[in-house]
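tl;dr need the bound structure. longer version: we got a ligand (BIS(adenosine)-5'-pentaphosphate) that a collaborator sent over and nobodys looked at where it sits. i said id run it. heres the input, straight from their email, havent touched it
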Amino acid sequence: MRVILLGAPGAGKGTQAILLSKELKVPHISTGDIFRSNIREGTPVGLRAKEYIDKGMLVPDELTLQIVAERLEASDCRDGFLLDGFPRTLPQAEALSGIVDIDAVINIDIDQSVLKDRLCGRRCCPKCGGTYHVNTLKDSLCPACGAELIIRKDDNVQTVTERLRVYNEQTVPLIQYYEQSGKLLVVDGNQSVEDVFAGCMVKLKG
Ligand code: AP5
Ligand code: MG
């Protein structure tokens, strides 16, 4: 199955993508994660992307499309994939439609007033990729693998404010774009992680 996860920064795309990719047995492809691993490794892609990510801006379409097209060519994508954080502009969506047919687009719909707290309290595991919130953690260690958790560099109030502004301006139009194609499934993101996951599965099977 070829699925896109749409949603505002902090809507829970990454959290759901980990669960959904296990359930659907397809790879989880997060453009944000690909950029962050390039930044850690100091690659040319990482150096370029960092300039934008640190400011809360989108990485230019041409660079983003290049990394996605390369990733989708890998053999593990033959039977499907789950795209998290891509596409997020109309040109990206149009370019994707020229590469591959998508089966479903899930929009995790959320009340934007909770997003700043979610993002500024997020803690990420650099070892196993787990995502948590400071309110539900006992200490600074990953509950799954014990590694020291980190705070994403773009999870500060100023950058989060810009990411939300950019989302509303450039990514929200994709909701209508996919609605018109008849592929849009809307799931209420203002629920527990388990209930959002259940909602995604019901819509995908429906
Ligand atoms: P990216 O990494 O994609 O970030 P984002 O879209 O801003 O989304 P987040 O990862 O911040 O949020 P999420 O929805 O995954 O939420 P999560 O599950 O972690 O992109 C980063 C940057 O890379 C962009 O700003 C841009 O510069 C660049 N980029 C990436 N893709 C690009 C593209 N296609 N084009 C151009 N540039 C691109 O959850 C958040 C928090 O909420 C966590 O603490 C979590 O524990 C908690 N939480 C999750 N679900 C729930 C729930 N149901 N209830 C309560 N808390 C919850
Ligand atoms: Mg994410």
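gonna send this back to them w/ a short note. Residues 13-14, 30, 32, 85 surround magnesium ion (ligand 2) (CB under 6 Å).
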